[in-house]
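Section: Multi-chain targets

For targets with more than one molecule, the full set of components is provided together so that the structure can be written out for the assembly as a whole rather than chain by chain. Components appear in the order listed by the source. The example entry contains two components.
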Amino acid sequence: MISGSRIKRMVAKEFRQFFRDKLMLGLSIMIPILQTLILSYAVNTDAVNVPTVVCDMDRTRVSRDFLASVTSSVAFAVIGEELSVHDVERVLDRGGAELALYIPSGFSRDLQHGDAQVLILVNGADSITATVASAYLIQAAASYDVEVKRETILRQGYRADALPSVRGETRVFYNPDLRSLWFMGPGIMAILLLVLLQSFAAFSISKEKELGTFEQMVITPIRPTEMLLGKIIPYSLIGALDAAAIGGVVVWVLGVPVRGSILVLAAAMALFILATLGSGLLLSAASANQQQAQMLNLFLAFPSILLSGFMFPRENLPLVFLWISDVIPMTYLLRIIRGVFLKGTGFAELWLPNLLPLAVLSVVFFVLGVIRFHKRLD
Amino acid sequence: MSSAEPALRTDGLTRRFGQTVAVDGVSLEVPTGDILGLIGPDGAGKTTFMRLISGVLVADSGSAIVAGHDVTKDPEAVKRHIGYLPQAFSLYADLSIEENIDFRGDLYLVPRDEVEALKEELLEMTDLLRFRRRLAGRLSGGMKQKVGLICALINRPKVLILDEPTTGVDPISRRDFWRIISQLPDQGVTVVLSSPYMDEAARCKHLVMIGRGRVLAKGTPPELRGRVRGRIVEVLAADVRAATRVLNDLPCVRRITPFGDALHVQIEAGGQEVAIARDALGRIGIGDSAVQEVAPTLEDAFMDILAQEGRVA
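Its structure, encoded as tokens over all components, is:
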């Protein structure tokens, strides 16, 4: 027979300890809010003001015109002009610039013959910036190419509307400016919740084991279920509060729109909290002290960060990792969160592909955690 | 034994850890209101035995009836009726003395007003009343153990199990401790405790000596003292090493044990042998006044029983 009053007292004790530890209390409020802000702004894959050097060996009106046109985008900040390809390399080596545009002598002459080349040097050590920035640069060069051809043809007496042309129009759905902030913000909400909650759950038990207070409970007639609920109830509540706080920051500070149903979001979060507390319990069952719990917490958080589609597209994952990704609750939560925030997806679209698997996984993790939780010492 | 059901009865209680048999077929009967002391060297199996009868650890075989319940069948029922102060006991450092006691009461579902009354009384007896709001993390070792004892008593247990409760505890706290323990039998509470201190063992009504998981001897403290073979001679020597050397050469000397600043020399029975020892000591300048036959102490009994066991094994 489970005693409600014993659970109530246990919850009260957990909260008392939680609120007494001012550092933990402060951290559990400040970490989610600060981290959301920092991560959202820091994890930014947009290329803006990439430090760029140029080297114009042609020094003609045409080459200057090309340079000005290509580097006018906000993606680049021209920070210097070098006099030889050798100097350019040195600047890249030093880390003074991420990108260099080298125009060989004879550029304008080659252009007339339809065979001009420029060299783009990229710091591949920072591959994300390099990829994005060099793509911008190539695109800029291509549109200069089209413009030059067009002018030449027009000069030869063709009418502009007689020129054949194909233009690809891009319309980006849901996040028209492709702001990585919009993309990252909601995801960070899920990641933070995972790391925080999993460690709360794991630590609250492994700490008792390490300090010996666990033994004090084992010797009393408290039932394992009561002990578990006594741990889970307070941390679910704290998790829900943290989720709300992070959500607030994402919406009101970062300005990410919420286009879908808050209710679906809340349901998904609740399921996720269950799954996370379950894995926290598993983790505490597997560790004898707080240090082990800490290492396991990190270890278990990595797949959720790397394989869930939070940072890298799932489509690029090798098959084995894709399978792992399929059993990570985070994978489904992320789709739901991004769906609700940006796409305005509703329950009908999310139910079968995402909410149901999340629910199943949550129950599985939670049950596993409960099964592995023993009220014993050996 | 009284006609009433004993507070604790074990029958062939056994528990292994891998290859080691920590508790090896222990059968004991402890009457209600007894104070039973478990003595024995480190690693003898005292702690494992206490964990087994507390329902914290599951026995491999054998049975134990504690406070009227079979611990192998219903450990939770046993837990309700006992108080257990483990050796590695610890309090919640971030809760006060009072909060720790209250929480312990909550775990047993003791009504708050009962907890309140008992807590007041026990805090008073242990001289802790004025520290009631102090965080447990800022208590001395002795205070912590006293709070631990109060926690173990908060459910008014029928059997109180204390695993080396006073190890590392200052003499004054130890006195407070015993003030409570010694009045428990009058309330019908049975106490089972282990202690490395022989002066503490002497205060128990019965003693059980355990070695390598088995019961080596049991009886009242005087009974155990009476088991010592031969006689004990106490030697006060300035040069302990010289005295030891001389005594070791005598065939009648069974064992020499340092005892405070004296030596306890166990000698094969007979007044003759004692005289031989006196002579030998006299030759190195240790006069008759420094050599005195004494009644065996529990420590002597402890050493002698262990030695007998060693010969058997």
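The CA atoms of residues 12 and 26 of chain B lie 5 Å apart.
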